[in-house]
């Protein structure tokens, strides 16, 4: 919660003013039953119309002031809640953007999504409610008790006997509620994860007729959320009926004792009437306090989830490691890495590339090809060994400088709901010429020109209105458009036909001759012209050389070549 107070700090003057206005309104509300009792017991018996009208006018004024001040204060409370949540959401989004891939893996994406949406919403509700009721409810409660004590001390004893029981009840229920709401939020994370997977894989689910299976999977997590919600809800829902019970018992006793005291001439009917009104005010104040506790339970569970992300220390710091003069552009020396820090995902990887050279990486699924790329881009830190660009260890290159060296197409990269030009430009303001050159090299220009609105053609989210091959060409164009120092194509020509694939490679050689290129591929034909080919198996380097060298030295490479190219193994 300390984090939240930090965000509330700039609004303290406005909140104080709002709470002061609320205070005035609440006092007006408290005065009304007292004036009513005074009118019934003291003014009406005098039978002076002018006096009755005067006190009636005072009551009207008090009511109007109570309504107006409450409206103004509530609006101010909403303003503060909106602006505080906006700032929290902004900082949370920024922090999430800077989390390292490892930290994102640890939090999981659905959990980050719900922290950014549901949790910030819960905070918004809590901050708003605390301001609307935080002053009003305690004043109505304490003020009500004080006024009733002065009005009818004997009857107030009945009330005072009941209130501690209610206080204890609220405390006990809220203490149980906070962990239950944290638990519920985790259930929601898991539901978001399932929905996310389902929507991302909607095509394959339909194609394999797995809709029913997915429905069952969703029902399962949905039921779990309902179960946790029920558990939290039931615990919290116990409060209101039990409180009502206590208070109704108290009210009945007040009426019995009050009636007896009026009959005995010890008090007046106006006082009993006012006492009953105060009793209702006190009841409502207690109910409001309970609602505040429920909201606080949710809000504080959400606040700690948000705090967890905001307080995550920066990962992948830039280190002051001296570089060494090198004629290699990219260099891997004895690099080892493991995601879980148990079994090595990559083990003892070595290669050197000169500027403008091409490296092809091939190997079975899950052998560590994409991981190697991730290490080069420093999305994760290697466990041991050296990764250098121009002789400079990647850990010593500031992230922005490092990442602008790359043009990259990852597996399953996304296109956005925008024009083709904007998707290639990607917010870099590159100019039409660079965009068209990149599109031409990526073999995308022909199909773009065939569209009625060319580069202004709008794509749907994730590029669902273009074919798989067209999508890959646009993504390659995006990677090329920034004229990168290093181009990485991670299995990104798999949907291209052989002819287009070969045209792409030829265009890369002629127009991006100074760009060092790394191509991860499943097809030998995509990499056989590369200057170096790295063959991986289970994270280990089992072959390194040119196509011809590997045919001689690496059995696995020869087997893949024969299976894909038959007898024609010439480069
Ligand atoms: N974020 C991650 N957390 C934990 N393990 C991971 C993560 N990403 C990949 N792995 C594991 O590391 C291994 C190597 O994965 P990687 O994606 O590098 O393989 P790949 O050779 O690129 O596979 P593919 O050809 O299928 O793309 C796999 O066993 C994979 O399950």
From TrEMBL:
<dbReference type="Pfam" id="PF00664">
    <property type="entry name" value="ABC_membrane"/>
</dbReference>
<keyword id="KW-0547">Nucleotide-binding</keyword>
<feature type="transmembrane region" description="Helical">
    <location>
        <begin position="20"/>
        <end position="40"/>
    </location>
</feature>
<feature type="domain" description="ABC transmembrane type-1">
    <location>
        <begin position="17"/>
        <end position="298"/>
    </location>
</feature>
<dbReference type="InterPro" id="IPR027417">
    <property type="entry name" value="P-loop_NTPase"/>
</dbReference>
<dbReference type="InterPro" id="IPR036640">
    <property type="entry name" value="ABC1_TM_sf"/>
</dbReference>
<dbReference type="GO" id="GO:0015421">
    <property type="term" value="F:ABC-type oligopeptide transporter activity"/>
</dbReference>
<feature type="transmembrane region" description="Helical">
    <location>
        <begin position="237"/>
        <end position="260"/>
    </location>
</feature>
<keyword id="KW-1003">Cell membrane</keyword>
<keyword id="KW-0813">Transport</keyword>
<feature type="transmembrane region" description="Helical">
    <location>
        <begin position="133"/>
        <end position="151"/>
    </location>
</feature>
<keyword id="KW-0472">Membrane</keyword>
<feature type="domain" description="ABC transporter">
    <location>
        <begin position="330"/>
        <end position="563"/>
    </location>
</feature>
<protein>
    <submittedName>
        <fullName>ABC transporter ATP-binding protein</fullName>
    </submittedName>
</protein>
<dbReference type="GO" id="GO:0016887">
    <property type="term" value="F:ATP hydrolysis activity"/>
</dbReference>
<dbReference type="GO" id="GO:0005886">
    <property type="term" value="C:plasma membrane"/>
</dbReference>
<feature type="transmembrane region" description="Helical">
    <location>
        <begin position="157"/>
        <end position="174"/>
    </location>
</feature>
<dbReference type="Pfam" id="PF00005">
    <property type="entry name" value="ABC_tran"/>
</dbReference>
<dbReference type="InterPro" id="IPR017871">
    <property type="entry name" value="ABC_transporter-like_CS"/>
</dbReference>
<keyword id="KW-0067">ATP-binding</keyword>
<dbReference type="InterPro" id="IPR011527">
    <property type="entry name" value="ABC1_TM_dom"/>
</dbReference>
<dbReference type="InterPro" id="IPR003439">
    <property type="entry name" value="ABC_transporter-like_ATP-bd"/>
</dbReference>
<feature type="transmembrane region" description="Helical">
    <location>
        <begin position="272"/>
        <end position="294"/>
    </location>
</feature>
<dbReference type="InterPro" id="IPR039421">
    <property type="entry name" value="Type_1_exporter"/>
</dbReference>
<keyword id="KW-0812">Transmembrane</keyword>
<feature type="transmembrane region" description="Helical">
    <location>
        <begin position="52"/>
        <end position="73"/>
    </location>
</feature>
<keyword id="KW-1133">Transmembrane helix</keyword>
<dbReference type="InterPro" id="IPR003593">
    <property type="entry name" value="AAA+_ATPase"/>
</dbReference>
<dbReference type="GO" id="GO:0005524">
    <property type="term" value="F:ATP binding"/>
</dbReference>
């Amino acid at each position: 919660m300390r984090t939240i107070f930090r965000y509330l700090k700039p609004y303290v003057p406005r909140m104080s003013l709002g709470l002061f206005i609320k205070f005035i309104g609440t006092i007006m509300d408290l005065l009304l039953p007292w004036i009513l009792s005074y009118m019934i017991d003291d003014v009406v018996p005098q039978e002076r119309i002018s006096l009755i009208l005067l006190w009636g006018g005072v009551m009207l004024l008090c009511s109007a002031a109570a309504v107006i001040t409450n409206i103004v204060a509530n609006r101010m409370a909403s303003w503060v809640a909106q602006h505080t949540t906006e700032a929290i959401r902004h900082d949370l989004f920024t922090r999430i953007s800077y989390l390292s891939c490892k930290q994102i893996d640890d939090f999981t994406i659905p959990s980050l999504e719900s922290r950014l949406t549901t949790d910030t919403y819960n905070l918004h509700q809590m901050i708003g409610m605390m301001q609307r009721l935080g002053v009003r409810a305690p004043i109505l409660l304490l003020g009500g008790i004080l006024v009733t004590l002065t009005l009818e001390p004997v009857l107030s004893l009945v009330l005072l006997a009941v209130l501690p029981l209610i206080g204890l009840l609220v405390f006990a229920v809220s203490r149980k509620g906070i962990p239950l709401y944290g638990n519920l939020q985790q259930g929601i994370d898991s539901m978001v994860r399932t929905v996310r997977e389902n929507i991302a894989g909607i095509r394959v689910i339909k194609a394999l007729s797995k809709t029913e299976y997915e429905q069952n999977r969703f029902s399962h997590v949905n039921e779990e959320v309902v179960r946790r919600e029920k558990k939290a809800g039931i615990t919290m829902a116990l409060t209101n009926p039990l409180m009502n019970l206590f208070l109704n018992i108290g009210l009945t006793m007040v009426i019995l004792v009050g009636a007896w005291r009026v009959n005995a001439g010890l008090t007046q009917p106006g006082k009993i009437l006012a006492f009953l009104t105060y009793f209702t005010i006190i009841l409502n104040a207690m109910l409001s306090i309970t609602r505040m506790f429920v909201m606080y339970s949710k809000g504080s569970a959400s606040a700690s989830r948000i705090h967890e992300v905001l307080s995550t220390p920066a990962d992948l710091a830039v280190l002051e490691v001296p570089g060494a003069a090198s004629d290699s552009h990219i260099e891997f020396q004895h690099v080892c890495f493991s995601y879980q820090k148990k079994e090595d995902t990559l083990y003892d990887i070595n290669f050197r590339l000169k500027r403008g050279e091409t490296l092809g990486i091939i190997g079975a699924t899950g052998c560590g090809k994409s991981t190697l790329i991730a290490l080069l881009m420093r999305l994760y830190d290697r466990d041991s060994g050296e990764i250098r660009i121009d002789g400079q260890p990647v850990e010593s290159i500031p992230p922005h400088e490092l990442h602008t060296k790359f043009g990259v197409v990852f597996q399953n990269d996304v296109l956005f709901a925008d024009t083709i030009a904007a998707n290639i430009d990607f917010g870099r303001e590159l100019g039409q010429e660079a965009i068209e050159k990149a599109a031409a090299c990526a073999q995308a220009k022909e199909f773009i020109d065939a569209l009625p609105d060319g580069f202004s053609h709008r794509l749907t989210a994730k590029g669902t209105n273009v074919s798989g091959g067209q999508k890959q060409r646009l993504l390659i164009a995006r990677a090329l458009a920034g004229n990168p120092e290093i181009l990485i194509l991670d299995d990104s020509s798999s949907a291209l036909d052989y002819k287009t694939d070969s045209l792409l490679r030829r265009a890369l050689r002629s127009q991006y001759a100074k760009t060092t290129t790394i191509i991860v591929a499943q097809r030998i034909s995509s990499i056989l012209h590369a200057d170096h080919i790295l063959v991986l198996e289970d994270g280990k380097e089992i072959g390194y050389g040119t196509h011809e060298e590997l045919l001689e030295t690496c059995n696995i490479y020869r087997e893949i070549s024969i299976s894909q190219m038959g007898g024609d193994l010439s480069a």
